[in-house]
Amino acid sequence: MENKKELRNWLDEYNLNHPLVIGGPCSAETEEQVVKIAHQLKDSDATVLRAGIWKPRTRPGNFEGVGALGLKWLQRAKEETGMKIATEVANPHHVELALEHGVDVLWIGARSTVSPFIVQDIAEACRGIDNPVLIKNPINPDLSLWLGAVERFYTCDVKNLGVIHRGFSTYEKTKYRNIPEWQIPIDLQNRFPDLPLILDPSHIAGRRDLIFDLSQTALDLNFDGLIVETHYDPDNAWSDAAQQITPETLVQHMKDLKIRKEIGVDEAYQRTLNELRAKIDVADNQLLDVLSKRMKISDEIGKAKAKQNVAILQSKRWNEILGKMILEGEEKGLSEEFMLRIYKAIHQESINHQKKVAKS
Ligand code: PEP
Ligand code: MN
């Protein structure tokens, strides 16, 4: 698959003067719930209503969705509000039922994207359809696997495609439910600048207070839209309660987010600047992570040295590192003076860490 302008035709045809917004509950729970949320969203920027009908749960025993019955509720919401409707499909039977019930937009869940077999089956069931299919990233941070899924649909003649960034799973506990690893969608965007890219801040965050900032970062990075879990009673939602926001909050967020279109006087300049700044923020966070990981290793070295009663400062090793890093730095366009300064600071911090653990 190559990048082609046509990849974004479907989105252009939506003719929006703001980012695409897909709102609605994690899961369809009752007919009243689906229809009520649709009415609450219908006059907002959200033009597509989402609701999970079949819910892939990591562990069995959680709410697994209402099943095909919920499609009728989505259909009624569509008729009453004029919104487009979207749901997750995870096998060929889901595709058939969703299409029969007038579902406009299909999405592929993160747990499906990990499996080329499943993706292939779903893609074949979708052969030739015009409905947009949005492909969530796989749960593991693997750009090829994500792109591979997109290509499987493309080669099954599904040309209205998009991707959803929903973060990546880690064993480590972080403030996010799924870490954003922004570098991955940025790389994807560099390869396929015209493939619509949508952020799912809800599943990255796992908690509602992080949703706004994640959405702003995405818009600064030129994402095309947002898919946000929305429920009138988030705390009592049957699934993903902590991350859902009310329709009112979503409307407020859309007012408060700086959307590229509204940026003042010199629009092109501001747009570029915001995008580059968002990229710098991503790089800075990566730097911090790497530095903190490096110091954790220093702590381990400190412990090992203390056990052996060995001196913390080992000049020979330090000079070797410094010489090597200056040479490698030069190859990457970093001056000797800068490498010296930065490595002295890193070395000093590392010694401080080792001293601290040696004392404890
Ligand atoms: C969802 O959108 O409700 C969902 C299950 O998402 P994901 O596949 O990203 O976990
Ligand atoms: Mn969910």
From TrEMBL:
Enzyme class: isomerase
SUPFAM superfamilies in the cross-refs: Aldolase (SSF51569), Chorismate mutase II (SSF48600)
Keywords: Coiled coil, Transferase
Source superkingdom: Bacteria
Coiled coil stretches, renumbered: 266-293
GO biological process, one term: chorismate metabolic process
Pfam families tied to this protein: CM_2, DAHP_synth_1
Organism whose genome encodes this protein: Aquimarina amphilecti
An example Gene Ontology molecular-function term: chorismate mutase activity
UniProt entry tagged with the keyword Coiled coil: yes
Listed name of the protein: chorismate mutase
UniProt keyword Coiled coil, yes or no: yes
EC number: 5.4.99.5
InterPro entries attached to this UniProt entry: Aldolase_TIM (IPR013785), Chorismate_II_sf (IPR036263), Class-I_DAHP_synthase (IPR052899), CM_dom_sf (IPR036979), CM_II_prokaryot (IPR002701), DAHP1/KDSA (IPR006218)
Domain Chorismate mutase positions: 267-358
